[in-house]
Structures are given as C-alpha cells and as structure tokens.
Amino acid sequence: MFYHIKELQYQARPERPDPLLAKRLQEILAGKFGEMTVAIQYLLQGWNLRGDANSKYKDLLLDTGTEELAHVEIVSTLIARLLDNAPWQDQDAIAAQNPMVGAILAGMSPMHAIYSGLGALPSDAEGYPWNGRYVTATGNLLADFRDNLAKESGGRVEAARVYESTTDRGVRDTLAFLIARDTMHQNQWAAALSELEENEGFVAPGTFPQERERREFSYVFFNFSRGEQSAQGRWARGPSCDGKGVFQYVTNPQAMGEQQSLPPAPPYIHDTPPSVVQDYKMSMPPNI
User: Fold this and answer.
1) Tell me: the pLDDT tens digits for 106-121?
2) Residue 264 lies in a domain
3) Potential cystine with 206: which of 123, 138, 170, 201 (Cβ 3.0-4.6 Å)?
4) What distance in Å separates the CA atoms of residue 38 and residue 32, rounded to the nearest whole number?
C-alpha cells in the first residue's frame, strides 16, 4: 500500500521558462537511465524477491524504489514549470523573422504543447516512449544489484551533463539534490553487492556449479584486435577476481570449431536453391 504526501521530497523551482531545458530533462525522467526506469526496476525486484518477506534486501529495494517515485514527481514538476509561459504558439512567426532564433525554438518538443498540455511526457529527450525493456529484474540479487549500480552510474552521468547545460540556479539546485541521491544509491548498491559476493561468490549465479563449465576457458582473455594493448590490463594476468583461477592472455586465438555449414532448407521455405549458390561460388574469380 502506498501513500502520497503532497509535498515534494525536494524543491523544483526553475528561475525562468525554458522549453529546451524541459526537453533535455525528459531524458532524466524517462530515458533508459531515468527516474521512471529505476523506480519500476527497484520496485519489481523487491516485489519479485522470494523467501523472507522481512528480508533487508527486500526492504532496501522497496525503500529505494519508493524514493525514486518521488524523484519522478520532482522531475515532472520541474519540466512542467519550465514550460510555464513558454512562447510555443509564436514559434512560426518568430522563426520567419529570425532564422537563428527559429532554429533554437525548433528544438522544443511540440508534444509538450500538443499532447501533454505543458506537462511532462513518458518519453525520453528524443520523444521515444518509455519502455519496460529498460527494466532489469532477474530474481538473482547479484545480477540485479550490478545492474542497479550501472543504472545509477548512467543516471548520474546524464544528470551531471544536464546540470552543465544550464545556468538556471533553480534547476541546478534540484539536479544537485538528485545527483547527491545518485551518489548514495551507487554506494548502497556497492555495499549490498559486497555482502552478496561474500555469501554467493563473485560470479553470478553463484548457485551454478563451476564444474559444469569448460574450466579451461573460464579465465582466458582472447585478443581479437590488432596490437596487444589489452595485455596491459588487470584481466590479462594474475589471480582472477573470484579467487578461483589465474588469468591467461592468448595473443592469436585460433578457431576451435569446424567451418560453418548448414543443410538446405525444405522446398516450402523457398530459400535460394543450393545449386544456385554453388554456381555463384564457382563463377567467382579465384582470388575472391
């Protein structure tokens, strides 16, 4: 059960209208790393967590997911206020008088006026609708928390870039709060991962017996590019991060399977007949 408290978690008061900044903030709201994504992701991970209903990890997920809903509200409010008194109706007239100004105004999302009535949209900065495929909820906390850490990292990068794109002190203040919460969330997922790795191991899922792997390939790095710069990395030599192997570096990896060849498809599939493909090969010059 959820309660909505009418006061925002943090203030969202821009200094002036700015429809282009509102468009950029759509990425913070509903992009791949946006507030809508992490809110649904953390809540689903928590609701899908099986076992003890009083698990500290379930509580961690639902606490954070609920906070992210508050961030959805903050960014939505900020977008709507940036659209207040925005001169979208006069774009055509202004553009006709000054092509440069027209080019700038052309960056405003027309959907903010036509579809949402000067409100936030469930879409990213390019107008692509928010997509549930952004959400990761595998049921394995080690895999999920690593994705959570990546989402918070990407979100903080984007928020920092939008912060640098404006001089509006009100917007910067709101973003500074959201960036600070991203700092906390990155740290909390890292702390939770550290706990899980101690109990489950480093590689997810820790429940899969490693004896079933082809162990001779478990800690081998294959160099598939020109040069050997990758050989300078921590992943090329020394003990593996899970403590169960030693990294090896292969300079010129060789093919280990046979040449790919498929039998002809049945006639009802209507592929190109094998005789035609073979005739084409026979007609090619020898050096091709």
Assistant:
1) 567 878 877 787 889 9
2) no
3) 201
4) 9
